[in-house]
Dihydrolipoyl dehydrogenase
Amino acid sequence: MADKYDYDVLVIGAGPGGYVAAIRAAQLGLKTACAESRETLGGTCLNVGCIPSKAMLHASELYDEAASGRMAKLGIKVTPELDLDTMHGQRKDAVKQLTGGIEYLFKKNKVTWLKGRAAFEDAHKVKVGDDTVTAKNIVIATGSSVTPLPGVEIDQKVVVDSTGALELPKVPEHMVVIGGGVIGLELGSVWRRLGAKVTCIEFLDQILPGFDGDVRKESNKIFKKQGIDFKLGTKVSKVAVKGDKATLTLEPAKGGDAETMEADCVLVSIGRRPNTDGLALDKAGLKTNQRGQIAIDHDFRTGVDGVWAIGDVVPGPMLAHKAEDEGIAVAENIAGQTGIVNHDIIPSVVYTWPEIAGVGLTEEAAKEKGEVKVGKFPMMANSRAKTNHEPDGFVKVIADAKTDRVLGVWCIASVAGTMIAQAAQAMEFGATSEDIAYTCHAHPTHSEAVKEAAMAVTGKPIHI
């Protein structure tokens, strides 16, 4: 297929969307290359995002379990000692193994890794480092980076972003997290467990924007109980750094008197923005919208023939698994097959303790579309959660009042991220709440709470 081009497919970016697109394209018999400027493959997710943060979340959970005395209640008496260097070491090791794994998969599938930054010269020609290559199809998968807070300089010492927050050489005395979204809550949880005082400042009147209302309220209570302080409806207007301390100026979002707060670490986590700077999109005939995203059609085609885009640079949630699914779909579309992603069923997970997960519509969004029935079941009534001493949280199933079709499922539980896959799969098949309620679930498992919440939609849970 390549004929006059160097490659059938050139993918720009080797994050979850890009590397998956490249591997799938190669599997489908297309001559494929992937341009990546980082020293290792895997993008933000594997190098400085999802993977290293989970390594620190898991290790800090175990430390907290021991330090809090919860282990003693199970008959295990320990006095833990924090070795932060070793904790960082196991994080780096996880990253090294997984990024190396992708390099192996590139070799196995005969994907050429072009090392260097890519910029368009025209719609089929791209400069990568000092070389210029041509491709019949080009997939933009350059991901996203941290949204800066105006007037606040990130020095990665006192004022850090999510990357710097993973690398702190010592536990801060007081960490202030700006932003009550997923990243801020996860990284704030890590350092709170390891001994830091953590204050989370959120501009909106509740944490976790975009999540179901009940989940947002309950999560806030749980995190408060764990020792995270919240200042909601508050904006940070200034951060002044002097030596190894920062002074933050805080103002009520709705107006009022300003106050100051001191911290020795400030984490800026107010969101992410698409990485399109430096791509010379104009040379390919492309523009971005107001949010810096590239417009695409249902098949991931841009407005320019032969140029496609996926992941964080296109509209939709900035999630690694969404990008991966789009990577498979775009490769299949390029190969003449039918690649589809159901964007209505993309699960979201917060990897705190307990985990928080959801898929589909929130109750608020579902009610805007019509009449709904809702079933809830508390984790404290679930036998596995009870034996594991994990009473916090619930499962909530939202169904259409007339058809009983499941519109959304939300849960807070120690393994919510794993539990949500069942809900996503059920919804992909158009399940009703009754379908879930009458599916046999193994006992005792956390997932029985999904069954019971589905039974509660029609008012007949057994264990409450």
Observations:
- The CA atoms of residues 146 and 272 lie 4 Å apart.
